[in-house]
Write a structure and sequence with these properties.
By secondary structure, this protein is an alpha/beta fold. The protein has 17 helices and 17 strands. Strands 4-3-2-5-6-8-1-9-16-15-14-10-11-12-17 form a 15-stranded mixed β-sheet, sandwiched between helices. The termini are far apart.
Length: 481
């Protein structure tokens, strides 16, 4: 081949590579929200053009956001069917009973675009031993519809028990829909999604991974845990479906957890979250009285659903956390299995403590993810130095997700205090104003503190140099853990 032809193709490839590099850099500058992520991708594209270009266009683009905008009109029609009287009652009750939290209620209105609903009851269920029997009983009592969304649905004793209950409901003619995360379904074999489909149950996988390996660190996971039965009874929180969460079974890897039974008008918004995810995955709209029956008051709690994900609901939960910290007057209590707050949240926590508010943070002494534990240890001094208190809870591993402010406000659901939950996963929390629920959950935290030990600055500074270097290295990857 003549040399000028070779030179021509080499020059063409160089020009194409340079053009692709510039185009990719411009795209990420215009579309990335996080500056650290933008700098990282720009460096990767610049230093390793071919590899960086390929990785960015495969993994770095949020393709879900565009679809979410198309789903919004369908979702909004559900909002319009909620009786406005519950919203008006909630606003009046908040002004009357907790006037200093009215601004926090206003923040929730602005952040989420969904109302604070009166007339709800939220009951805590401690671990699978309490939650699973109630969830199974609800499925067995279902007459019209069952919607179940979970991150992990293991093929074990408890997973098969749920599968049989869902099969019985399906056989009775109940409309049954099950949504399992595409990564979470790989935690056991055979995958439960396949088993459920063989039983004839409508089952979908949320963004199944094309990679042949299981990884906790793949992005854009549906981490929500929602069960809605007949449109009027719901369960949500942090509980996956796996035998490890049932301590009475003496599992090999025991997990403490917290779930909730929800009744009242806010159930409609839990179902809405499921319906949007289901429509995204399967293209089917859920409608009619089987899914959306009239709802009536079931208690005295003011509750709002807070959807969060890397789409148009981006940053909702994190902003609610920041708003709640600024509203705290007496105490803040946080329980999280994966506690890796970003610098903005760390500053807000410190400022809250410096105002004289008691800030207590509980995380596991022995984490099931070592890199998370090491990174959390490395940043703990940033909180302790300004007056926050950190407690390490003894085994078994505590998967509880909880934020309490003063004696009224509770933030519960699936979200952790880490970048993966707050930026990359699809999560769902409930914002609750309820003194009865708050008292129950404060007692739960008190019980956890009985078997916890305080983490101090002295202990952190006494770590051997190799351990400190290990923890510092792990913290570099905090945005991806």
């Amino acid at each position: 081949m003549p040399s000028f032809v070779v030179d021509y193709w080499v020059a063409t490839l160089i020009v194409l590579g340079f053009t692709a590099q510039i185009g990719t850099t411009l795209h990420l500058l215009l579309n990335r929200r996080d500056s650290a992520s933008t700098v990282g991708w720009a460096a990767l594209v610049s230093l390793t053009p071919l590899i960086g270009f390929s990785l960015y266009w495969i993994f770095g683009i949020n393709r879900i956001e565009r679809k979410a905008h198309r789903l919004r009109p369908a979702g909004m029609s559900i909002r319009e069917r909620v009786e406005i009287t519950f919203e008006q009652r909630a606003r009046a009750m908040l002004h009357w009973h907790s006037p200093r939290l009215v601004q926090l209620g206003n923040l929730g209105d602005a952040v989420t675009g969904t109302p604070l609903e009166a007339g709800n009851r939220v009951e805590p269920l401690f671990g699978g031993d309490q939650a699973y029997p109630q969830m199974l009983a609800a499925i067995d009592a279902a007459r019209h519809s069952v919607a179940l969304s979970t991150y992990i649905f293991d093929h074990d004793t408890i997973g098969r028990t749920f599968a049989q209950a869902l099969a019985r409901a399906h056989a009775r003619g109940v409309q049954t829909r099950v949504l399992i995360d595409g990564v979470g379904q790989r935690y056991s074999r055979p995958p439960m999604g396949r088993v459920l489909r063989q039983m004839g149950i409508e089952t979908a996988l949320f963004l199944p991974s094309m990679l042949p390996v299981r990884s906790r660190y793949l992005n854009l996971r549906n981490h929500r845990k929602i069960l809605v039965v007949d449109g009027h009874l719901a369960f949500t929180g942090g509980l996956n479906i796996r035998i490890g969460s049932m301590l009475s079974a003496d599992p090999k890897h025991p997990i403490e957890d917290l779930h909730f039974c929800v009744k009242g008008p806010v159930v409609r918004f839990l179902l809405k979250a499921f319906a949007v995810d289901w429509h995204f995955t399967r293209g089917e709209m859920l409608h009619g009285d089987a899914w959306y029956p009239p709802l009536h008051a079931a208690g005295n709690a003011l509750v709002r659903g807070v959807a969060d994900g890397p789409d148009e609901d981006f940053d909702n939960i994190r902003r609610m956390m920041l708003g709640a910290l600024s509203s705290a007057r007496e105490r803040v209590r946080i329980v999280s299995p994966y506690f890796l707050p970003d610098q903005t949240l760390i500053t807000a926590l410190n400022l809250t403590a410096m105002r004289g508010v008691s800030v207590e943070i509980l995380m596991p002494e022995r984490n099931n993810l070592r890199f998370v534990q090491w990174a959390a240890q490395d940043q703990a001094d940033l909180l302790l130095v300004d007056g926050c208190r950190i407690w390490l809870t003894a085994p078994p591993f505590d998967h509880t997700k909880l934020m309490l402010v003063d004696d009224l406000w509770c933030f519960i659901g699936s979200a952790n205090w880490d970048p993966r939950s707050l930026k990359l996963n699809f999560e769902y929390n409930l914002e609750c104003y309820d003194p009865w629920l708050s008292a129950r959950l404060h007692r739960l935290v008190d019980d956890k503190l009985c078997n916890a030990r305080a983490l101090t600055l002295e202990q952190l500074r006494a770590r051997p140099l190799p351990i400190r270097l290990r923890d510092a290295f792990a913290r570099l990857f905090a945005p991806y853990l």
